Amino acid sequence: MKHFGLIALSVLSLISCKNFEKPEPKSDTALVEDSIQKSEVKLYTLNGGEIQVNNKNLFAQGDTYKGDTIVLADAFYVIKHPKGNLIWDTGLSEELVGKEPKSVNEGALVLSRKDSLSVQLDQIGLTPSDFDFIAFSHIHFDHTGGGNYFKDSTWLIQDTEYAFATGEEIKSQGFYNTNDFKALKNVKQLKGDFDVFDDGTVIIKSYPGHTPGHQALFLDLVNSGPILLSGDVYHFEENRENKIIPQFNHDIPQTEQSIEQFEQFVSDKRAKVYIQHDAKHFNRMPKSPKFIN
């Protein structure tokens, strides 16, 4: 029995060591390749229009911003990566380009767009056919305006957002235009966070609540460091400072949970946050054809 006990202990020891075995360290060549790849990731900021908000209180509950107005940017982004290209959001409808501003929601919002998507892409030597991936932070109309240009790209979307986009409930909602993305047929449905290029440099983060499958985008850049593009977790700095949630969010309790997760991730990564609709944040970013890396 004593010998049996020693044998059993040895077997358990081997199993335990195997279970907690450290992964093989990367070779010097692999580390160099990772470093080169990371240094080649570029983030371009493009202009998807402007939103004059005549009823800022839409972006709160109660009377927090009653009587206030604000001008929101409508940024969208291109990520160039050695393994491919990703477009993140596409701005307002291109039907606005060259037209007078359009009033919607009984004058609560006034929409305008000066530059087309194709003209801005041309400035960085790209066309829609050059994109492997398209992802919207969410499918509100101010983020999907140029979606149909990317019919050959793989659409990265949370499964909950896709179910909503293709369901009946969306038909009665005013903040969506399903015609903006009807040409997108190559769909990859996500279930949470997704590492786009499988190297940690470009990661879609799931933060539902604003819409059923809202998401943000994390980038780990060699010079600029960790960056988080907010989507619409927040719309402007005041929202973030006071954790104020728009009254039109799909699920307010879920948004509250996502905000906590968002801020914890920012703290863990020591990431710089760019609020996509905040005009001050937009103005701080170098504009295409300039980039950050």
TrEMBL record:
InterPro entries for this protein: MBL_superfamily_lactonases, Metallo-B-lactamas, RibonucZ/Hydroxyglut_hydro
Superkingdom, taxonomy of origin: Bacteria
Q: Which GO terms describe its molecular function?
A: hydrolase activity; metal ion binding
- Domain Metallo-beta-lactamase: start-end pairs: 73-277
Q: Which cofactor does it need?
A: Zn(2+)
Pfam families given in the database record: Lactamase_B
Q: Which PROSITE patterns does the protein's record reference?
A: PROKAR_LIPOPROTEIN
UniProt keyword list? Hydrolase, Metal-binding, Zinc
Annotated coiled-coil positions are: none
The record's PANTHER family line, in alphabetical order, gives: 102 KBASES UNSTABLE REGION: FROM 1 TO 119443, QUORUM-QUENCHING LACTONASE YTNP-RELATED-RELATED
Q: Which family does it belong to?
A: Belongs to the metallo-beta-lactamase superfamily.
The entry's protein name is Glyoxylase-like metal-dependent hydrolase (Beta-lactamase superfamily II)
> What organism does the UniProt record list as the source?
Aquimarina intermedia
Organism classification, top ranks? Bacteria, Pseudomonadati, Bacteroidota, Flavobacteriia, Flavobacteriales
